Amino acid sequence: MKFVKGLLSVTALSAIAIISHTGSAQAISFSITHGTTGPGGVTNQGAYSDLQLPGTKTVDFNSGSVPTTGFAKYSFQKNDGSSSVRSDVWAPAGVNGQVNTSNYLAVFAGNDVTIDLANHLDYFGINWGAMSPGNVFSFFDGDRLIEKISYDNVNPMAEVRAAQHGNEGNGYVHFTATQKNQYFNRIVISQIGGGGFESDNHSFRMASVPEPTAILGLTAVGGALLLKRKKQTQIEE
Fold it and tell me: Which of 4, 47, 91, 178 would be a feasible disulfide site paired with 104, CB 3.0-4.6 Å?
């Protein structure tokens, strides 16, 4: 019975993350997982995307700076050093809450980071945490706002609660556009009010025109990954 209850709770969690957002005027759906370990299985660089979608490119900030050329160009609203790439205890946690000792992107109150993309995307993923009130993502097609997704939307679903962050939420968040008019070519990361917005290991995939079955498969992957992890936890118990 314990396993059945766990199975139902994970299924419901996936439905909240995907169905409620596509069915309540949300243009871009999202799901949240623990993510996966870094290259070679390293656990001290935060979580990476576990979807492994073909054509995905990742920015990990390990160089110590943001990209300013190429497929994803990052720019700070204020170039005063208040928001930057850095390494400290607030770096997004690993798959099971491990301390991340690598560089990550931090955005603070009153500042934005804009990501201008060379092509339209249908998928964007981030290691997000420690999640804080005022964390906001805005997705645009040119100057047209498609969607805003914030801490309030995602934090209740975060299963990773890192001790080094006072048990604040962490996880790998997958944003998916399933219709052509939802494809985006600009992302703005903002911190509204006090606190900070910490993220790492950004994943980008250029938009294509998927078959209907591919769309269903993509939106279901987040729930399947959560179900697998919950099943493993129940077996270990």
Answer: 91
Q: Which contiguous run of DSSP H or E holds residue 46? A: none
What is the DSSP-derived secondary structure letter of residue 36? B
User: In the block, which residue shows the tokens 């205890």?
Assistant: 89
- Going by C-alpha positions, the residue among 101, 67, 111, 104 that lies closest to residue 85 is 104
CA–CA gap between residue 44 and residue 200 (Å, rounded): 12
- Sign of the Cα torsion 83, 87, 88, 94 reads positive
Per-residue pLDDT of 28-82, as tens digits, reads: 999 999 999 999 999 999 999 999 889 999 999 999 999 999 999 999 998 788 8
The answer to whether residues 163 and 96 touch, using CB atoms and an 8 Å cutoff, is: no
> Whose CA is closest to 192, among 74, 131, 112?
112
Residues 6+ apart with CB under 8 A from 82: 108, 111
Three-class DSSP category at 42: coil
Task: Determine if the peptide bond prior to 91 is cis (ω within 30°).
Answer: no
> Distance (Å, rounded) from C-alpha 55 to C-alpha 52?
9
In angstroms and rounded to an integer, the radius of gyration of the C-alpha atoms of the chain is 17
